[in-house]
Here is the input.
Amino acid sequence: MIKVDGLSKRYARTVAVDNISFEVQKGQIVGFLGPNGAGKTTTMRVLTCFMPATSGTASVAGFDVQEHPMEVKRRIGYLPETPPLYPDMEVREYLHFVGQLKGIPKADLARRVAEVSERCSVADVSSKLIAKLSKGYKQRVGLAQAIIHNPDVLILDEPTSGLDPKQRVETLELIKSLKGDHTIILSTHVLSEIEATCQDVIIISKGKVVATDTMDNLTHRLKGSEAVAVEVEGRNGLELATADVQRKLEQVSGVSRVINKVEGARLRFEVESLQGRVVRAEVARAVVESGWNLTELAPVSVSLEEVFLQLTESKK
Amino acid sequence: MGNVIVICQKEMKSYFSSPVAYLLMTMFAVIFGFFFWNVVGYFVFMGMQQQMGGRSFPMNLNEQVIRPLLSNVSVIGLFLIPLITMRLFAEEKRSGTIELLLTSPISDVQILLGKWLAAILMYGAMLLVAGLNFVFLFAYGQPDWRPMLVAFLGLMLQAAGLLAIGTFISTLTKNQIIAGATTFGVCLLLWIMEWVSGYETATWAKVLAYLSIVSHFESFAKGVLDSKDIIFYLSVIFFGLFLTARSLESLRWRA
Here is the structure.
């Protein structure tokens, strides 16, 4: 459905997207993952014909974005990072306007507006001014705008940014419910969101595709190893040497790396295991057997940065 | 054409659902009303003086009231036009809605034509409010309506040109104030450029005077349809819209 081949985008001084290629099949939800400034938005803007690429090609539903922008635009629904809303319009009026822009025939317009309002649960505010809506509602109006012409492809740029946790979950549920009808590309820098919604992941960093994989493979790779936070103190107020503790932890079998996170008098470490090893019990035993107090032992959630590190390292 | 109307409708709604339209119309009505009252007052005073003096020069509403009045309007317009055009694109760029427009199946030219058309209608609405004053002239006198119509046509053409330039300037920035101030400066410059012809007859002065937008209104004010001036205004319109289209295109490259 979407095919990107050797796409690059250079600005005056920087290269935003550097020779990336990927493909998205029909009906998939694909997560576009990367830190801020990785080139997610730029790629999306090329796909939506907002801006032309410097080199390379991209096509949507078989139409090249450069050669047939009108055909592509008709088939794409796009929600930019800030929803493109007119604060001085009412919700219904706004959706009506977007419907007209997207070329929905007059006879179907009112029906479509009602349908997408219902679908994105904004029907109850349809006669409110957009300026008066909460952020979650604004985001949903933005989504309604993107799907109003029933496009083949939906491109959503950080659809959950700036929402509170409840709104976040609702928005993701809504996106998931759109799955069957549309091919969806969804960008985010929050890993758990991709985990909850997408089947495939494209990881992009500094303008390059670092990995394309299915969600299952990715989580498997991530869960293969374990990271735990450990905090230790000496018994009866005894002072401990940081280096001693670190050495002891490194000697535990199955540990790949110990990161020093000492803050003042608190001896904190982050212990990472080798692939496929569980080390929590052994770490605890090692600490206790050394005659120290174990004051904390907690699993560390894997952050996006670590995913990057892991993926880029495994690639080399 | 359908898409142009869609954009135009949206812009009109935006003018009239905010205080902008009402403010502009009120301001214009007050200023115009003051000029009207002044000119008519002077006309009446002259008429009385002539009767008392026993001499009778021909008094003419068209020449002594309508013509100076509409010449004034063509200058007042310079001050109000920036207020009409400054938000057209600057606001869309600031709020990000430009992304919606540029990723919809609608061409750049349709977008800018729609917006420009809305600006012209807004200016037309202002003129209409002011034009209500002329009802009194028709009620109490017999002015010729044909030269008046030509003058109004001239006003609209002149405004259409300046509005096209203002639309172009609005695409250059995200900041309405900057767009408005720049447009105001350009409008003012296009007016005062003509003044050099008062003392200088060199070619450069003639060129400057020719490019001055207000001087081309004089023929219309007299009720004369001069093709040379019509062509001038049409060229300004084309030039302004052409620059707008180019600017929108470059926006995509730079974004």
Summary: Residues 162 and 187 of chain B are 7 Å apart (CA to CA). Residues 2-254 of chain B form one domain.
